[in-house]
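Box 3.1. Reading complex inputs
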Amino acid sequence: MNALLAIAIGVLVTAGTFQLLSRELFRVPFGIYLLLNASNLLVLSMAASTDRAAPLAQIDRSPQADPLVQAMVLTAIIIGFGISTFLLMLTGRLASRKGSLDTSDMRHWRG
Amino acid sequence: MSPIPLVAVPLLALLGVLATGARHRVQALLILIAALSCLVWTIALVVAESVATVNMGGWPTPLGISLRADALSRLFLLVNSFVFVVASIELTTRTARTGDDDPAEGPSSLSAYPALLLALDTMFLTADFFDFYVFFELMGISAFLLVMRGSREPLEAGWKFAVQSIVGSLSLLAGVSFLYGLTGTLDMEGAADFLDRSPSVLWTASLFLFAFLLKSSVFPFHWWQADAHAASTTPGSVVLAGAIINSGIYGIMRFWPLLYGEAFGWLLGAVGIASMFVGALAAVRSDDAKRVLGYSSTSQLGFVLLALSWSAHAVAAFFLVAHAMAKSALFLATGFVGERFGTYSLRGLSGAGLRHPVPAYTYLLGFGSLVGLPPTVGFVGKVGLFGAGLESGDWGGLALAGFGSLATLGYGLRAYQTMFMGGDGSHPEPVPEARARFSHVAMVVAVLAVVAAGVLAEPLWQLSEAAAAVGVQG
């Protein structure tokens, strides 16, 4: 199960990075969104870490999941939702302003 | 003494700004009052020298989030408040005369300023590293809104800034979650006990460092900064260079024991030296006055990273404060001249200072501080930097820091001569409708602070040393 999660995170990061480097404008926020999902899965996977003490109190010896991670991942999801919405809207404004969907046309500022 | 007013006052100012729609005069006044109150409270905290702690919700530290104003936080809060006061004075004087600060493509309210003040204050105060990530994100979003208020292609510059910054934030989220997975606690002080030098800790450290280096805009992650400065308004640039960039260095200093900073000393030194020269060379080549200052920030933060690589935290913190103050003065002078004559091109502005002595002297003292001339605060910073280099025995780094200072003189002198001393004997024509808009108050405050902090540097130096002691021990 842990291996499946790690592989899923890897696939998402790969796909997200690939989209981030795309020439078409709207693939970039989708790449960000994939990377965001990968990071949230990463946070969630920290609940499976077995080589440390229990967070608040050791009640019994059976393997338990960590509830604090759920709170962290909720926060991260909400922040990511706000950011990706904002970036999508910004991309739309930029596309209508420049009249183009090609990132090679966004050359006014060249870094 | 509680640190709560530093969080509550900007929050109230943010609500006030959002409630007043597009009435910029009222909003600028609200922001000025909030910034001044935060500065006064921060000075009171610094003078009291107490580690003011507040546990949110009454939960004790390992269980809940606490806000703690230790020496490292106090230093960064001080420079943050000062920069916001200067920027809000500039905003107030602009909106008082014309009712608006700059034609805007972004939001119609000045909400980015109090949101940034809130995010930065809480980020410097929090003792919980997931809370740090949350306010790092809030700072990032407010920074995008800030940059998009300009009048020169702000959407494109803001979009590029946003994409790069979000990638950095995701790296920080991954790093924070790894750190939690390794230590089982979210408390910055308690987490150091659970770490050892295993490969997963070094991966975590790399993720954190990537996020902080991107935010500090050093080579090779500096691509967003010149565009962001060129596109944004003058008070926006002041806040960007004087407050937002500091958060990256704050992160490196705050997480130093958790990230085994000594292990990355070579990397910080290499990145620092590369930034020094890449920033200086790009600044010399650039024709746009604000881009010169943007690349100059890259170069100056290279010096800060070099000091961190020598484990000279006090010098690094002091140098950062000196840079923030000098850069505020420089951006204010550049903004005055640029908008008065309707262009930011260095060739187009040739001779602009011959009839405007106040911005000219501000610029001279500002870049004198960057180079390290007495009696400015940058002189004390440079003396400290070279002293730390001699102590560490890194002769190569020290020599390169010397060449870096000469390079700073190179681009600063070129910009000053071209803009203010009439390089080719021509005078630019002032833009008629811009005649009434600008005042000298903010830049005079900034440059007086640069000189005063240079002459009376001892209290600031002691605060930097206290901050360094906290940073190294965690």
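In summary: Chain A has three helices and no strands.
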